Amino acid sequence: MTGGAATGAGLALRRVAHRCHDEDSPLAAHPLLRPYLTDLAATHGLALREEALGTGQAYVELAAPVVDAVTSADEPVDLLVLAYGVPDVQPGRNLALRIADRCPGDPLAFAICDQGPAAAFTALRLIAEYARTGTSTRALLVVAEQSVVPYPLTAPAPVPDRHAAVALLFESDPSPVEVRGHPALPPEAVGAVLAADIAELTGARDGVTLVLGSGVDSARDARDASVSDVLRAVPGLPYTGLLARLADGEPGRLLVLADYDPTLGYLCVAALEPQLRPTDFAATGSPGTGGGVAHMAVKD
Amino acid sequence: MTTTLVDVAAFLPERRVPVEEMGPELGLTPTQVRVLRRFNGLGEVRRQRHGETLVDLLACAAQALPSLRGREHLVRYVLHARGVPVVAPYPVNPVHELRARLRLDRATAFAVTHHACASGLLAIDIAGRLLAHDGEPGALALVVAGEQVFTQDERLAPDHRVFGEGAGACLVSAGGPGDALLSYVADQRGDLDHWGADGVGAMDRFAREYTELLSEVILAAVKLADLSLDDIALVLPHNVNVVSWRRVCRRIGLPVARVLLDNVPLVGHTPSADTFINHASAVALGRLKPGDRYLTAGAGLGAVFSAMVFEYQRSGNMAATEVTDLRTRVVGTLGVLLGRMLGRDLPDVSEATRLFDELGLSSSKTLELLLTLEEELDIQVDVENIDRRDLASVGSLSDFVVANADGV
Fold first, then answer.
1. Which chain A residue has its CA at the smallest distance from B154's CA?
2. I need a labelling partner for B295 at 20 to 30 A (CA). Which of A28, A94, B187, B314 fits?
3. How confident is the model at residue B377 (pLDDT cuts 50, 70, 90)?
4. How far is CA B25 from CA A32, B32, B153, B267, in A?
5. How confident is the model at residue A2, as a pLDDT?
6. Assigned superfamily of A178-272
7. Residues B17 and B101 in one domain
8. Domain range spanning residue B124?
9. pLDDT tens across B348-357, in order?
10. Tens-digit pLDDT profile for residues A204-245
11. Are residues B163 and B197 in the same domain?
12. What is the ipTM of this complex?
């Protein structure tokens, strides 16, 4: 993902499932975590926050229901890309492989991180690229976040106020997907670049829904965007809150997603067509409601 | 569009730590340490000095890339291939610090992980895909690999492998000059998850199935490249240990001499960086010539087994590395010892010199030569699998010594 456009990748968004969870995982109490995290924090002269030990969520367990919700045994998945910012409660675990292990199709799986909220866009870009070359025909994008960082933050950074995961199922399709990224963009330039991107991506098309991440200031950054139908990311979820709203995409309306990370300086914009496919799975709750009970939304 | 490696470089910190010094830190008994050296072929690792950072380590490798200088403006991506998913406390961000240090501000930077110590291969593949998608002429991606050994996880079988600090870097292009990527195969085994509920059981099964799984992925990558094992001039291994590679070689019928094991006793296992370090060594040692097909393979807990096949095309402007050239030392020392043994100067001894036919050595004299070489270089060579073909020439004997040296 860089300054250039990635056009015509050919993807259809088939299903979206999002889940919030306020409870902590028993895996947070793994006996090896204390020495591991102590050593990790010590690399930068930090001490553990004792009160945080034993709390937090594991992405394998957090993602399992949303992966289950968007997949089925007769639809094998061949690619799974996990994106995250805040580390898993078990930071040493190669958990994308574990998530893939329970996913139909035994997909190639890996993770993208250390890019803030832009990691999800890079993951989407890669899924589009694997589809373009025919390497993948059905792919999962999984993003997870958990609210516990067991040491003091050394700099401002997005931390969610609850645990959440989102899974998006894509299939190869003639519909173009475009993902754009602008590295090292200062906040004052976001509005103009975003407006130009939106204009180019939507052209004269009617029926556009703009979905804005928590890093985009509507008043400052999106005032020039000529789109009236605007959805905001689920609050408090800097990594999954934007994608959670894709469950609300309507057939026939182009979805344009945008997020900005003032810390790392990435503005990311993507355009895709929702072609949501019904599942046999029950849809319950609504995205991002949390409240101590796992809620899920599967768009039928 | 073919993914190519435009340039590859490696960096090793100067500080050397013998496995004997690491024993207490790793919780190993003196006997276990002797096994590490004698059986697993591990000798020492490199470590940074106090105060040096991960970004220092990665930057040294990237700055050793001759092709990067003057082309910073063409770098569109910086990928940190990570064996350990999290190497710094959030939100500390080494790959973005590296991007700033190298003045690659126009690049998109991120980490690629969850393929354990084979994440470097995945990152090369991903970098090539992104560049191919962009289709921008001359555009490059910088892939870096290397980590600090910041903790000791006793589940990682320290009696079989020791982790060292070192870094590798490569510039990737789509369709540009350089080593052409011919195939890539990754076999995942998420059930072998050492952080899962049955971590001990997963470790045991990983150890039991390792040889078979790594062998299969190597053969699959060779087949995908439409080649046979005979076409593979050299294997760049992950430096987990020597004995595991002997088992893989036996299983698939690959001569051990075709696996570049020189760095195992000198560097140990560096997460995700072994491929790059061994590539730099292979070029420095003259083990690759244009047109050679080579394979690199790695595996890691979690679990994943990966192999990649390339065609070597580089013109030889590799960065100098600090990897000690064991094979050069062996060849040179053999020349001296042969002269001493035969009582005459042998100025024309080369790798091609035939020990039996040209110099008239007997098998027993050749073994005597080998023992003297051990003393001279302070190494120990496992002679269990030696056969007459290994004794044919100075070159073949040197290959055998390098592949079977249990310590330096």
1. A32
2. A94
3. confident
4. 17, 13, 11, 18
5. 38
6. Thiolase/Chalcone synthase (3.40.47.10)
7. yes
8. 3-174
9. 777 788 888 8
10. 888 999 999 999 987 777 776 677 789 999 999 999 999 999
11. no
12. 0.92
Q: Exposed/middle/buried for A76, CB within 10 Å: 0-12, 13-18, 19+?
A: middle
- Nearest CB among A126, A149, A264 relative to B129 is that of A126
Strand B293-300 vs strand B304-311: parallel, antiparallel, or unpaired?
A: antiparallel
CB A154 within 8 A of CB B92: yes
Task: Return the residue matching tokens 């290959």.
Answer: B399
Å between B1 CA and nearest CA of chain A = 10
Q: Which of B124, B300, B161, B284 is nearest to B217 (CA)?
A: B300
Q: Are A208 and A227 in contact (CB under 8 A)?
A: yes
The answer to whether A194 and A272 are in contact (CB under 8 A) is: no
- Return the CATH class of domain A11-29+46-174: alpha beta
Size of interface A-B (CB pairs under 8 A): 182
Instruction: Name the residue ranges covered by the structural domains of chain A.
Output: 11-29+46-174, 178-272
Strand pairing class (A229-232; A254-261)? unpaired
Residues B18 and B137 in one domain: yes
Q: Classify residue B318: in a domain, yes or no.
A: no
* Residue B354 in domain: yes
Q: How many domains does chain B have?
A: 3
Asked whether residue B283 falls in the same domain as residue B305, the answer is: yes
Query: Are residues B164 and B190 located together in one domain of the fold?
Result: no
A-chain CB neighbours of B195 within 8 Å are 30, 90, 92-93, 95
Sequence-ordered alpha helix ranges (H) in B299-408: 326-342, 363-377, 394-404
- Alpha carbon distance B100, B122 (integer Å): 24
Boundary residue ending a domain (B158, B174, B190): B174
Domain identity same for B10 and B151? yes
- Chain-chain contact of A115 with B109 (C-beta, under 8 angstroms): yes
Whether residue B321 lies inside any domain: the answer is no
Facing residues of A292 across strands? none
CATH code for position B330: 1.10.1200.10
- Which of B286, B311, B336 terminates a domain? The answer is B311
Interchain contact, A113 vs B106, CB within 8 Å: no
Q: Which residue in B75, B131, B195 has the most chain A C-beta atoms within 10 A of its own C-beta, making it the best mutation to test that interface?
A: B195
Is the separation of the CB atoms in B167 and B9 below 8 Å?
no
Same domain, B185 and B169: no
Do B24 and B158 fall within a single domain? yes
Interchain proximity B106–A111, CB inside 8 Å: no
3-state SS string for chain A: CCCCCCCCCCEEEEEEEEEEECCCCHHHHCCCHHHHHHHHHHCCCCCCCHHHCCCCCCHHHHHHHHHHHHCCCCCCCCEEEEEECCCCCCCCCCHHHHHHHCCCCCCEEEEEECCCCHHHHHHHHHHHHHHHCCCCCEEEEEEEECCCCCCCCCCCCCCCCCEEEEEEEEEECCCCCEEEEECCCCHHHHHHHHHHHHHHHHCCCCCEEEEECCCCCHHHHCCCCCCCEEEECCCCCCCCHHHHHHHHCCCCCEEEEEEEECCCCEEEEEEECECCCCCCCCCCCCCCCCCCCCEEEECC
Q: Which residue has the tokens 């030889």?
A: B316
Question: For residue B26, what is the domain's CATH number?
Answer: 3.40.47.10
Burial B1-35 (b: 16+ CB within 10 A, else e): eebbbbbbbbbbbeebbebeebbeebebeeeebeb
The predicted-structure confidence for A29-70, as pLDDT tens digits, reads as follows 988 899 999 999 999 999 999 999 999 999 999 999 999 999
Same fold, A11-29+46-174 and A178-272: yes
pLDDT of residue B346: 66
Shortest Cα–Cα distance, B336 to chain A (Å): 48
Instruction: Determine contact: B213 vs chain A, CB below 8 A.
Output: no
